[in-house]
Amino acid sequence: MTTTHGNIEAPRKAPVPSAPARKKRRRRLDAPSMPIRLVKGLVLLIICAVVIVPFIGIASTSIADPKEVTRAGGFVLWPHGINFSSYESLFAGGVVTQALLVSIGITALGTLVSLTGSTLLAYSLSRPGSFAHQPILIMVLLTLLFAPGLIPNYLAVKEYGLLDSFASLILPTAINAFNVIVLRAFFMGIPRELVDSARIDGAGDFGIFWRLVLPLSKAVLAVIGLFYAVGYWNSFFSALLYINDTGKWPLQLVLRTYVINNSQLGGAQLGATADQLPPQASIQMAILVISIVPILIVYPFLQRHFAKGVLTGAVKG
Amino acid sequence: MNDVSVRARPARRTRAEAQDPAFSTPPAVRRKRTWRERAKRDRVLLLMAIPGLVLLLAFHYVPLLGNLIAFQEYLPFVPLGHSPWVGFDNFAVIFNGDPAFLNALRNTLEITLVQVVLVFPAPILMALLLNSLLSERLKQIVQSILYLPHFLSWVIVVAVFQQMLGGSGLLNNALRAGDHGTVNILGDPHNFIAVITSQVIWKDTGWATILFLAVLSQIDASLYEAASMDGASRWSQIWHVTLPGMRGIIILLLILRLGDSLSVGFEQIILQQGAFGRDASEVLDTYVYNNGVLGGQWGVAAAVGLVKGIVGVLLVFGANKVAHVFGEAGVYQKQ
């Protein structure tokens, strides 16, 4: 809900820099003096360290030797010995294993629902002049301006009988108008001639969509799909609001309870039978690592395409 | 752009033709496509819109109507719409200035103010710094690092801050090791605004540079050349060329931020209310959640939420109007 719609119409000009223009300017600028370059380098180094160091520390604590963690008072910046016992205890079938399965399921299913609904809606909006085009478009766009508010949302979900169901984690946030607009902009950019020739060959609207438009849109679909997937994986508030049954908690709620609120995570919660559990801090950091790793895996792809996607939507929306 | 050529039927007229009297065809021909026929022609498209529209209707437009409970005394076991109407009674906390509500409002505005001053300029400065780097490669590496926190959830960000600044975090461990005692950062209500502001900066500054960098790369190189030839130093080039070039986007984003004045990081704050206490950390959104979902005062919570939503929309329109007065494009434009 928060991330993207600040960018809706942001840069009006085409944002893709032309490489020659940039080079030209660089050459004209006299290179900065040595002290300035040093200061700049130092500032950048500090900024990057502020972002990176916590992750290193978290990963280190999760795999550090139990004795070392206890000696350090709960946080190890760089481990001397490696020990995976905290991961073993998390995957032993307790709350964390369960929450991980829930989160994976919600993310997979939610992404499928969101991507299907948004793609179909975006395609149906990609032809100005079609029946009811204007009212439908306005209906989509208005959702960016007005949000119903927390209480009405909650009561609606309650009235639909969806409290404590996995559907409540997916359906209310399934369609993001911003993503629909990005997809629509892409579909509208598909060359008319291609569509025409398919029609002459006898394809109907759905045939064109399925056999021509979708295969051409693989990249943008992947980007939007990841957009949604990251959203579902990270979503915390829907679960806080709609899910009371701890057995249906996604990972983010488990993180809040056992890491931020520091509730004791013992053998009963972990389902582990080991006599000696790893230190609480290691287990907590291992949960954090488990919830960060999927993001890290898709991150290179996200980074390459998201910036582009955000700007495309911004320009054409 | 029109859909006519898609059909490849010469008999139909394009929109340009429809507006041009020279193309006007006899009414008989024009009436050929009634709305029924158009609906029939586009039935597949309409069918495709249905799943998405149903979701938007059910979880956006129907709940909008649910705001009516702001004017009712909500009774949990009575079906919606059968609760007694109470007029504006639920709005009394706002009109009569209930202390808890005023506290939430004050905290919200304070946080907004601090964040507009401290959070808003951060990505602009960062973009200027990145833009001044001569090595593309270095720039890309720094960008990859800085964008990362944006994709992490608030739960993770708050947990990361705990590990750094919390009681058994990195900082306090280091202080203990050096016998300096410990500092209670995440738990002192006085630090609340400082802490959440630094979290926002940590999480989103990098990502927010994207738009500014895109605009920076669009600034005409010849302006720099001209400035340089006129003897402008690098600093005065930033002041006289770069910043004016970014003015449009800065104003646009500022409008959007101001329109959002009454929303300040709900997830982020609710996660840390336990640590900082409600006095310091209660904002309008958490007030609605705590009083409604947790406290059962549905009508009052909905009333506060409704007023907040309406004021929010008015703020966007207002800020946009101000931007027009100053000759900027704003979020939307009158056609």
CATH class of the largest domain in chain B: Mainly Alpha
Element order of chain A: H for helix, E for strand: HHHHHHHHHHHHHHHH
Secondary-structure element sequence of chain B? Answer: HHHHHHHHHHHHHHHHHH
Oligomer: heterodimer
> At CATH's second level, what is the architecture of the largest domain in chain A?
Orthogonal Bundle
What percent strand of chain A?
Answer: under 5%
Q: Specify the helix fraction band of chain A.
A: 55-70%
Average pLDDT reading of chain A: 83
> In angstroms, what separates the terminal alpha carbons of chain A?
18 Å
Number of domains of chain A: 2
C-alpha Rg of chain A, in Å?
24 Å
Q: Level of helix content of chain B?
A: 55-70%
Please tally the β strands of chain A and state the result.
Answer: 0
Q: Let me know the CATH homologous superfamily of the largest domain in chain B.
A: MetI-like
Name the descriptors.
heterodimer, A: 317 residues, mainly alpha, MetI-like fold, globular, disordered C terminus, B: 335 residues, 3 domains, 67% helix, disordered N terminus, transmembrane helix (chain A), transport (chain A), MetI-like_sf (chain A), cell membrane (chain A)
